[in-house]
Specification:
It is a single chain. With 184 residues, this protein is mostly helical. The chain is 71% helix and 0% strand. The protein is built from 7 helices and no strands. Helix 3 packs antiparallel against helix 4 and helix 3 runs antiparallel to helix 6.
């Protein structure tokens, strides 16, 4: 008795091959033709752009809050500048820039006539508490709100944007901790 099967029994039955081929063809038709993929893809891309733009605006408002606080409490400038630079970098990345090396210059809209950080209209228009600890708490609160919004957006963001938002939310949470520590 031979242990190797005969050639007739070694190959799959013709019906199995036909069923498999038809199943694969049907699956390919479902995957490629029935979803309206172009419309869905463009809608998802538009939603991602809107989310990214909204988050960039939030970062720019947060940046203006940092600049206002630095202008109102010059004694906090050395503590706040590194956090402010990070927020400026976040805004630039969300706008489509690269994180590269950050200069200490703020966004063009927040510069005053002399080009100094914190001297522009955006910095002057924000209310900053007169007490130093209250000013730090206000910044921490703004950072917390931004981090919470970014965390909430993770559920609907496309994967690449979700990873970016998660990183920014983590950085915001770190800023909240550092600002709270300084306020004590």
């Amino acid at each position: 008795m031979s242990l190797t099967p005969s050639p007739a029994t070694a190959r799959p039955p013709r019906r199995s091959l036909l069923t498999g081929a038809l199943g694969a063809a049907a699956g390919a038709a479902v995957v490629s033709g029935c979803s309206g993929g172009d419309t869905e893809d463009s809608e998802r891309a538009a939603a991602a752009r809107e989310l990214r733009t909204a988050e960039a605006r939030r970062s720019e408002r947060l940046l203006a809050s940092y600049e206002s606080t630095i202008a109102a409490h010059e004694g906090l400038a050395d503590r706040l500048r590194p956090l402010r630079r990070t927020v400026a970098q976040h805004a630039r990345v969300l706008r489509g820039g690269t994180p590269g090396h950050e200069s200490s210059s703020p966004s063009p809209t927040s510069r005053g006539g002399d080009g100094e950080p914190g001297a522009g209209p955006a910095a002057r228009s924000r209310e900053v508490p007169g007490d130093r600890a209250d000013a730090l708490r206000a910044l921490a609160s703004a950072e917390r709100r931004a981090a919470d919004r970014r965390t909430a957006a993770l559920a609907t963001a496309p994967p690449e944007l979700a990873r970016l938002l998660a990183s920014l939310a983590a950085a915001g949470a770190t800023h909240v901790y550092l600002l709270g520590k300084d306020a004590a």
